[in-house]
């Protein structure tokens, strides 16, 4: 009898059977890796995209924020769908849709078409991220869960920072369009592995989709982001700017009001009554706003002010990638043993100091003396932070809410990055130069320090772990 696809998917390249736990981890890493990689790989290609399609800084911001906008607005709905319909099914749909929209980005003939394709691509990413992480938290427990989350955060963190490396090589040697076309390879591999992964049948009734919540969230995020990006070109006095801004703020207030009363909310506000969940998400705002804004401006600065090629600008982030690869799992394991508080407090401070070191990177920029040491420090800080932060947030809620819990945390992270990138033009001052770059680095450092301070003051160590409780 011929082998089934699920049987073949259980056998690795060496012919050995892959255990379910190992397959879950590989699938979760690959599915999230492609989403995070695509969110960051485009950054180094922005100058090339604007040269070919026009649009300047505004188009560059929209190419990044179009993806983050739909991801941040819909990731909460996707988390609920993951809990209701099953992680495997939602992952499969997300992977197929991500492949289709990646090809749409690759062939986009003009800037607006690319932005539209990026928005649709963010919808697919919203299906991938919470489902993959929830698959881990529902499969592993105890110290094994800490190690698995550490591996997941390490590799997805690497995707977020190694993207510019791969992107730079493709931009300089071929075309920025290949950045999107190459997504079909890891997607195909993940779909094969996913074919061998079974999931228990859901017994609870299917909850209706929170359509009102999704709509209000999309308007509440889209309006202010549109205004923040376009105000540099049109000014705050323009009704095209201030009307979406006001409508967006009202819609976001309406979203919070609705979520407190909806019978099936896509963001259960009750989750935030758990101290570590609420504080962890507050720390997430500072850390991921800083991370997205810092690397967005850093990559543009090296090319447009420093005069480096896309490849050189991409390789400048490799030290952070190496630090994450070496230490993320270690700190995830340590957080599982001693509690996340100390790591969440120290890590952002270390990363913030690394960004402050970049203040010395003025033309003519010496990559080895002025950039590499700073990025090493940033990478160490992120390695200390990311796994304990994820563990603190998801370890504080019941496993049956893992999907929506991971969705909320990822939504907070994406929205923080979305708003931070939208504010880039305002902080820079219109044209990216040395002064504007240094101003951004100071803002990024302050955001990191704030994330560390919030963690130190608010996070509590779970009972039974070695780390002592902080004083009241």
Number of helices: 19
Q: Output the radius of gyration.
A: 21 Å
> Could you name the CATH class of the largest domain?
Mainly Alpha
The tally of beta strands, per DSSP, is 0
* Overall tally of structural domains: 2
Mean pLDDT metric: 85
What general form does the structure show? Answer: globular
Terminal CA distance reads 66 Å
How would you portray this structure in words?
With 472 residues, the protein is an all-alpha fold. It has helices at 5-9, 20-41, 46-53, 56-85, 87-106, 111-137, 142-173, 178-181, 184-194, 211-234, 239-259, 275-304, 310-315, 318-338, 341-357, 367-394, 402-422, 424-428, 434-458. Helix 3 crosses helix 4. 58% of the residues are buried.
What's the short version?
With 472 residues, the protein is mainly alpha-helical. 76% of the residues lie in helices and 0% in strands. It has helices at residues 5-9, 20-41, 46-53, 56-85, 87-106, 111-137, 142-173, 178-181, 184-194, 211-234, 239-259, 275-304, 310-315, 318-338, 341-357, 367-394, 402-422, 424-428, 434-458.
List the helices and strands and how they pair.
Layout: H1 5-9, H2 20-41, H3 46-53, H4 56-85, H5 87-106, H6 111-137, H7 142-173, H8 178-181, H9 184-194, H10 211-234, H11 239-259, H12 275-304, H13 310-315, H14 318-338, H15 341-357, H16 367-394, H17 402-422, H18 424-428, H19 434-458
Helix pairs in contact: 2-6, 2-7, 2-9, 3-4, 4-5, 4-6, 4-10, 4-17, 5-6, 5-9, 6-17, 7-14, 7-16, 10-11, 10-17, 12-16, 12-17, 12-19, 14-16, 15-16, 15-19
Transmembrane segments: 24-50, 62-81, 93-113, 119-137, 149-170, 176-197, 209-229, 235-258, 279-302, 308-331, 343-365, 371-395, 407-428, 440-459
Domain Major facilitator superfamily (MFS) profile: 24-463
Pfam families: MFS_1 (PF07690)
């Amino acid at each position: 009898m011929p082998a089934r696809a699920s049987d073949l998917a259980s056998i690795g390249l060496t012919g050995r059977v892959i255990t379910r736990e190992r397959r879950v981890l590989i699938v979760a890493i690959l599915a999230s890796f492609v989403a995070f990689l695509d969110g960051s790989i485009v950054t180094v290609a922005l100058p090339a995209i604007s040269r070919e399609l026009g649009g300047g800084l505004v188009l560059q911001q929209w190419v990044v924020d179009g993806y983050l906008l739909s991801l941040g607005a819909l990731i909460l709905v996707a988390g609920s769908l993951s809990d209701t319909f099953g992680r495997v099914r939602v992952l499969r749909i997300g992977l197929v849709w991500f492949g289709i929209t990646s090809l749409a980005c690759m062939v986009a003939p003009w800037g607006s078409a690319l932005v539209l394709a990026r928005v649709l691509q963010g919808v697919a990413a919203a299906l991938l991220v919470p489902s993959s992480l929830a698959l881990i938290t529902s499969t592993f427990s105890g110290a094994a869960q800490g190690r698995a989350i550490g591996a997941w955060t390490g590799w997805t963190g690497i995707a977020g920072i190694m993207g510019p490396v791969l992107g730079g090589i493709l931009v300089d040697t071929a075309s920025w369009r290949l950045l999107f076309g190459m997504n079909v390879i890891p997607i195909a591999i993940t779909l094969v592995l996913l074919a061998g992964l079974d999931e228990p049948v859901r017994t609870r009734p299917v909850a209706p989709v929170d359509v009102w919540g999704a709509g209000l969230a999309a308007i509440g995020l889209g309006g202010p982001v549109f205004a923040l990006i376009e105000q540099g070109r049109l000014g705050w006095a323009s009704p095209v700017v201030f009307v979406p801004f006001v409508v967006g703020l009202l819609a976001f207030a309406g979203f919070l009001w609705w979520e407190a009363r909806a019978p099936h909310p896509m963001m259960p506000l009750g989750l935030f009554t758990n101290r570590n969940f609420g504080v962890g998400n507050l720390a997430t705002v500072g850390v991921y706003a800083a991370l997205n804004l810092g690397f967005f401006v850093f990559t543009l600065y090296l090319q447009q002010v420093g005069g480096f090629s896309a490849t050189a600008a991409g390789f400048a982030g490799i030290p952070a990638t190496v630090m994450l690869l070496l230490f993320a799992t270690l700190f995830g394991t340590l957080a599982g043993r001693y509690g996340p508080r100390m790591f969440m407090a120290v890590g952002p401070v270390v990363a913030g100091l690394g960004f402050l070191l970049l203040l010395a990177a003025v033309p003519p920029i010496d990559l080895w003396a002025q950039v590499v040491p700073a990025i090493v420090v940033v990478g160490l800080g992120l390695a200390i932070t990311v796994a304990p932060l994820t563990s603190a947030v998801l370890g504080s809620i019941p496993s049956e809410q893992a999907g929506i819990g991971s969705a909320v945390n990822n939504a907070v992270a994406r929205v923080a990055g979305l708003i931070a990138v939208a504010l880039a033009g305002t902080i820079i001052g219109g044209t990216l130069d040395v002064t504007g770059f240094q101003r951004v680095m100071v803002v990024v450092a302050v955001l990191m320090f704030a994330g560390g301070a919030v963690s130190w003051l608010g996070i509590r160590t779970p009972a039974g772990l070695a780390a002592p409780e902080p004083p009241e």
